Amino acid sequence: MPEIGGEMRVRSWLFAPGDSEKKMAKATAGPADMVIFDLEDAVAEDEKPTSRRLISAFLSDIPESGRRRLWVRVNPLDGPHTLADLAAVMPSRPGGIMLPKARGRGDVELLDHYLSALEVASGIELGSTKVIVLVTETAEAMFTTGDYRGAPRVIALTWGAEDLADAVGASENRDPDGGYAFTYQLARSLCLLGASAAGVAPIETIQGDFTDLDGLRTRAEQVRRDGYLGMLAIHPAQVEVINEAFSPSVSELEAAQEIVDLFASNPGVGAIGYRGAMLDRPHLARAEALLAAGRRP
Fold it and tell me: What SUPFAM superfamilies does UniProt report for this protein, alphabetically (predicted)?
């Protein structure tokens, strides 16, 4: 399990539209681990300049220590807005940047150049602004999800189903039973594998129906079992459910501690019997990672 920003939790990433100071304030005051002020999909074209100013002013009013969890989603690099977004918000020192519709590692490297110049201009520590990348929103990006190892600034990868459906000309991205169709299940898997290969956090995409909290809990628990460390949220009501789903339970922590203690009492053993099964070193590594996650505040 990757270490993200030291002891930072990355369970819940709550979007707040950048054109609403009220919604940004509500999101900031809530329990989300990370808050993403959105300049992309949530903001109409004509409102983007105003939203940049709102986000910059909002960030400036927050003590610098509190901005670590306050990120900004800028517009895609292949459009006309990215540089204006960055130039407006970087002097206010957001904790990080979400890059949407990334086509591959080259987009991250270009973003790194932009951020480096703006950090120097704003007196910000070089390289301190971190990045989460949306890696499956274009068709070509699906073929580059494994290319992010060592990419500058990247601490997490996430994926998207709606823009991908638009990119491939699909009329729907769900099967009749309500689950994601194969292409979008593939996108989820490629994001998970890409994040693992890069040693960064895999973050599950949104659940659009924010009233279905039971369905959200089921889905969040499933993707956590698959290896995801957190999930995007579009409504404050989703945050507590996500935080709980991605937090180890007491029984999980107790079982993990038992495994760690078992190996500690048998040093040098590669495999060991445990409750009728054989455990080896990967089981120990997962138990240690679970305990480390449980220690994060």
Answer: Phosphoenolpyruvate/pyruvate domain (SSF51621)
Closest C-alpha to 102, from 70, 63, 67, 75? 75
Task: Please state the three-class secondary structure of the chain as a single string.
Answer: CCCCCCCCCCCEEEEEECCCHHHHHHHHHCCCCEEEEECCCCCCHHHHHHHHHHHHHHHHCCCHHHHHHEEEECCCCCCCCHHHHHHHHHHHCCCEEEECCCCCHHHHHHHHHHHHHHHHHHCCCCCCCEEEEECCCCCHHHHCCCCCCCCCCEEEEECCCHHHHHHHCCCCCECCCCCECHHHHHHHHHHHHHHHHHCCEEEECCCCCCCCHHHHHHHHHHHHHHCCCEEEECCHHHHHHHHHHCCCCHHHHHHHHHHHHHHHCCCCCCEEEECCEEEEHHHHHHHHHHHHHHHCC
**245-294, pLDDT tens digit by residue?**
999 866 776 676 777 877 887 887 777 877 777 777 776 777 777 777 66
